[in-house]
# Entry
Amino acid sequence: MSKSLRLFGAVAGLLIVTGAQAFAQDADAGKKVFRKCASCHAVGDNARNKVGPHLNDVFGRTAGTVDGFKYSKSMKAAGDEGLVWNDETVGKYLEKPKAYIKGTKMSFAGLRKDKDVANVIAYLKSFSAESTQESEKPADAAVSEEKKPEAKVAIAPVADAPVANHGTYHLGRPALPEEIAAWDIDIRPDGQGLPAGSGTVAKGGELFDEQCAVCHGSFGEGEGRWPVLAGGQGTLTDDRPVKTIGSYWPYLSTVFDYVKRAMPFGNAQSLSDDDVYALTAYLLYLNDIVTDEDFELSSDNFAEMRLPNEENFIADNRQDEPHYAAGLEPCMSNCMPEPAKVTMHARVLDVTPEGEEDESGAGAID
# Structure
């Protein structure tokens, strides 16, 4: 899909009157849509808080009450005022989070399609006791189960683990070849380390909408304080340069390596190699480095790709600098004749706020 058509779709979506409850709910379809949410929210067995709170048993829950999660003041206030999550309130929040609860830390813009909202509601209901257990179990059965004494489970004694007799500290064991291979996934600028595979711009656009747009925006512009991925060309000499893949990064291998190793946020290394090629191709397209939607990036043509700012990066030659060349001992104390003076402040672009007062932007999702 072209950028112009994607933009038209985004604008047209604002003109549609929502009515999620009018659609039949499909939990299986909702599971697919929930991929947009999975980087921040968890459901199912052993679900725990991530960037956002877990969503088990969300139906019937008062807003802002999951133990151990730090909500925004506005979300806690909504709960104090009586907001309880049900089909209607969850639907409105999924459609336009920031409009429904002003001041929420939720950076997600919302689901544009009513059927997607309805299907996600159905999917979340499958993890909500209020929507499943209560409707499936007779009341008298529930009461009888509560009175049933718990069975005692015998716990076998655990034998002492054998003490390793190798190495200096006698700990651990040599790593297996397959374990080393699982960690050895770095990619060099010349393409060494690339896995076999390929992916097109068009496929990357679909994956980006599903997996990345919630944080990085539909066009790589960044939501809230999440990183901007596209644009910024010609800004590197500005007071506040916009450092993106197209304006600053030197090598495409860094893009591929980072996406493969660390993305999507909260679900790292879940993408196939072909998915990573497709997303990397789409990021090239967003930055106008390639312009054909049918362009396919692969292990065969990867090393031919060049980012615009590559020539402005130079090799680390510190060993040739006078201090190192002379073999002088480094100064470790009282190295300056007077206290250091702050001459410039860097613009902090931290996406994981930690301060008590920092309750906006990325790093926390209600």
Summary: Confidence is low (pLDDT under 50) at residues 7-18, 141-146, 348-363. The first helix runs from residue 3 to 13. The chain is about 35% helix and 0% strand. Strands lie at 198-200, 296-298.
